[in-house]
Amino acid sequence: MGTGRSPRHPAPGPRDLHRHPRHHLDALIEHAGLDLTGAPAHRHRATFDAYATALLLLRMAGRYDTWDALAQAAVPPGLPGAPEPEEDPTLW
Asked: According to the UniProt record, where is the region Disordered (predicted)?
């Protein structure tokens, strides 16, 4: 199983995804430049969508030193544990 990484498409950071105008799976796959030629099944099937989502998570996780740092960046603003926007970039 490949990592889905492409040299022309670096791992999307939290600010990249936040600024992206579309957030559905197809748009995120395109934005991240994932290679899904080895994915099981076809788009809109549970196995394919789960595989693509896992590759997106792995791609984003590569931008953080720890799982806790990624999880903290994923907390929406206003909820407990959300970082201050001026301190840390978030997924929101």
From this structure: 1-21
